[in-house]
Amino acid sequence: MISQLSVLTVVIRLLVSVIFAGIIGIDRAYKHRPAGLRTHVLVCLGACIIAMIQQNIGFNALEMARQYPQLKGVLRADDARLIAQVVSGIGFLGAGTIIVEHHSIRGLTTAASLWVVACIGLAVGMGDYIIAIAGFLVVYAVLGFLKKIIRISPVRKLKIEYVHKIDTKKFIDDYFRKNDITVEGVRFSVIKRDDQKVYTNVYSIDFGKSLDYVDIVEGLSMNDNIIKVETINV
């Protein structure tokens, strides 16, 4: 006789989903990302539940066909129907974690982690533990260690507001030269604020692998003439 998932099987799959998603969620929460522990766990649990429901639908269809052979040509149980809805629907939740601020985009990695956590939940829910475990290990390695192993030096836009043009400009140029920061382009503007000229330079820079953009912001902010320093992702 074809039977549905047992209570023990359901509990084990749900616990595995909580463990896998919880570890990934802790990593996101530790890095102060928009979606943390509870969000990742809930997404993975939801995907796991949907996958188990889909399996039970398939079991029910097979059992019905076994009991009533005359219905074989009528019964349909598409194993991918509900799963496909999870894969496409999770995009709406992921989009909510993407923030656009001052021409900078943040949250793409978290949105991707939510989507892949849902995929892990589906694998666990379907009972594909090898795929689930392998997927979890690779995802955790990518989130936790890939950035430390492979450091990509992106071109960033650095916005600097300052006063006392000549002295401050010399300080900025000397700082870039000292730290081997390549300036690939610059945009300049000036406004009058509180009867004082405030200059704004937007640099397109490549700062290599030896320096972090946080260090650049902190280093430039040490000058008293510099009012504001911020990075803008390209």
From TrEMBL:
Localisation: Cell membrane
Q: How does it sit in the membrane?
A: Multi-pass membrane protein
Spans through the membrane: 6-27, 39-62, 82-100, 130-150
- Provide the Gene Ontology terms for cellular component: plasma membrane
Q: Which domain of life is it from?
A: Bacteria
Keywords, ordered alphabetically:
Cell membrane, Membrane, Transmembrane, Transmembrane helix
Q: Does the keyword Membrane apply?
A: yes
Q: What is its main location?
A: membrane
Q: Where is the MgtC/SapB/SrpB/YhiD N-terminal domain?
A: 14-150
Q: Which family does it belong to?
A: Belongs to the MgtC/SapB family.
In its UniProt entry, what is this protein called? MgtC/SapB/SrpB/YhiD N-terminal domain-containing protein
